[in-house]
Each structure stands twice: as C-alpha cells, then as structure tokens.
C-alpha cells in the first residue's frame, strides 16, 4: 500500500506497520488507520502517520525510557476494546511536541497510546492521574513531576 506522508514523502507501507484505532485519536476521531514508521538513524523516536491524511502525523516514543516511575493501570473500556489478556500483548508510546532547543520538547504522559500487538489495534487512553502531565519536558532528569 502506498501512502503520502508528512515526513517521509510517498512510501510503501507493509501490513505489519499498520494499526487500527477504532475510535480514532482525540481531536482526530475520523483518522482510524495509522502506520508506525521508523525515523532513519534514530531508534528512540518513530512517526505515527495517518494513512488517509498526510498532514496528520505524530512523533512518538516509549515513555518508560524518559520517566523512571511512569506506571498506570489500563482501564476496563480499553482492555475490552483492545481485547487485552496479558501485559505482554501491549506496548505503550507517548506523543511528543517538538520544540527548539530539542531538550525543551515535551511528551504527553497523561494520554498514552496503547497498542495491542496480536490484533493490531490501538487507542489513546486518557489517564486521570495528577502525577503525569500532558507536557512533561523530555529534558527533565527522568522524573514524573
């Protein structure tokens, strides 16, 4: 499948790169299918690219690499929607907001992206946890506050 992307131009997407977001992403509810794309020369960050709208793309990363004590429980609606049976079925990414200088960029710890590996579905889950911010500066010394 060929798609037009925000950062990579026109590329060929493989089925194993595709993720279905049954409810979209808050603010982008109409966007249901995304591709998770690597960033050449960078193993830390990836691009979550809409397969339908080239301008809808998010830079994402594993939040656990940035915050030592980041943890939360997946809520029941998310468990049901994604048919999660065990923790090994999922991985978590956070959406970044890039800034200059790069160390002032932020990650949204309040609304992680939950990916269910076995069925290739995902959801952005909103946490009600005051320990985590929507704009956690990534240059902070791996702390949640």
Would you kindly provide a brief summary of this structure?
With 145 residues, the protein is mainly beta.
Q: Could you characterize the architecture of this molecule?
A:
There is one protein chain. This protein has 145 residues and is mostly beta strands. It has one domain: BH3618-like. It is 5% helix and 34% strand. The chain has one helix at 76-82, and strands at 2-4, 10-12, 18-20, 33-39, 42-50, 57-61, 90-97, 106-107, 113-116, 121-124, 136-137. It is globular.
What are the main properties of this structure?
11 strands; BH3618-like; mainly beta; nine-stranded antiparallel sheet; 1 helix; 145 residues; disordered C terminus
Low-pLDDT ranges: 141-145
Silhouette: globular
What is the highest CATH level, the class?
Mainly Beta
Number of domains: 1
Distance between the termini: 42 Å
The major sheet is characterized as: 9 strands, antiparallel
CA-based gyration radius: 15 Å
CATH architecture: Roll
CATH topology: BH3618-like
Query: Total strand count, please?
Result: 11
CATH homologous superfamily heading: BH3618-like
Structural class: mainly beta
Q: Report the β-strand fraction as a percent range.
A: 25-35%
Averaging pLDDT over every residue, what do you get? 93
Helix content: under 10%
Order of helices and strands: EEEEEEHEEEEE
Count of individual helical segments? 1
Provide the fold topology:
Blueprint: E1 2-4, E2 10-12, E3 18-20, E4 33-39, E5 42-50, E6 57-61, H1 76-82, E7 90-97, E8 106-107, E9 113-116, E10 121-124, E11 136-137
Antiparallel strand pairs: 1-2, 3-4, 4-5, 5-6, 6-7, 7-8, 7-9, 8-11, 9-10
